[in-house]
Amino acid sequence: GQNIDQPTEMTATEGAIVQINCTYQTSGFNGLFWYQQHAGEAPTFLSYNVLDGLEEKGRFSSFLSRSKGYSYLLLKELQMKDSASYLCAASDSNYQLIWGAGTKLIIKP
Amino acid sequence: TAGITQAPTSQILAAGRSMTLRCTQDMRHNAMYWYRQDLGLGLRLIHYSNTAGTTGKGEVPDGYSVSRANTDDFPLTLASAVPSQTSVYFCASTRTSGTTGELFFGEGSRLTVL
User: Are B36 and B46 in contact (CB under 8 A)?
Assistant: First the structure.
């Protein structure tokens, strides 16, 4: 079956760095997405990886290893506004998205 | 720019009643989707539409129906609501199906079925 695993909750300190991991199993693979979702709001797109390696976008970076079925989202210089849930989603052979349950990130001062 | 608009924002519904959640986008996107989001679970696809005039079933279609009469609108109907349909519903769109473009989401409709 198809499956996405990511931690349920993580806590980090303002100004620090945090890495949110995601492992996936899909029938075929057409890329890995990360979305951010603040409480009570809609998910918003953060990043997309289809090739192995690290993609950097400001304070956020996303990494993919296709051979390991693994991705992570790296958040640097954490700010209080980064408190949110981070959703990992893999695109399968039919370009359907398989979603993880999300990682709730709590930032403490 | 509006993007995707959903209505209502929230609703309390008696079991057995029908309800239509509205979704309108102004981005001329071809593909539209309805997801439900429940605590502890990932977003689950209910129905989708790759282009106006076509619809398809997602992972959890039972008890829901959709239509796509034009590019902009994609309403979701619950014919006879049950408590297990209590959830937050998100409408989303992307420019073209079968690609890896990002999804744009509406603000969500919180539905409680009693």
Answer: yes
Encoding tokens for residue A20? 């949110």
pLDDT digits (tens, 9 = 90+) for B37-72: 999 898 999 999 999 999 999 999 999 999 999 999
Q: Is A36 exposed, middle or buried (0-12, 13-18, 19+ CB in 10 A)?
A: buried
pLDDT digits over B66-107, tens only?
A: 999 999 999 999 999 999 999 999 999 998 877 778 999 999
Chain A residues with CB inside 8 Å of B44's CB?
A: 99
B42 contacts on A by Cβ (under 8 Å): 4, 87, 89, 98-102
Mutate to test the interface with A, among B29, B43, B109 (most CBs of A within 10 A): B43
Work out the minimum CA distance from A101 to partner chain B, whole angstroms.
4
Strand ranges in A1-102 using DSSP code E only, listed in sequence order: 3-5, 9-13, 18-25, 32-37, 44-49, 53-57, 60-65, 70-75, 84-91, 97-99
User: Is A41–B45 a contact, with Cβ atoms under 8 angstroms apart?
Assistant: no
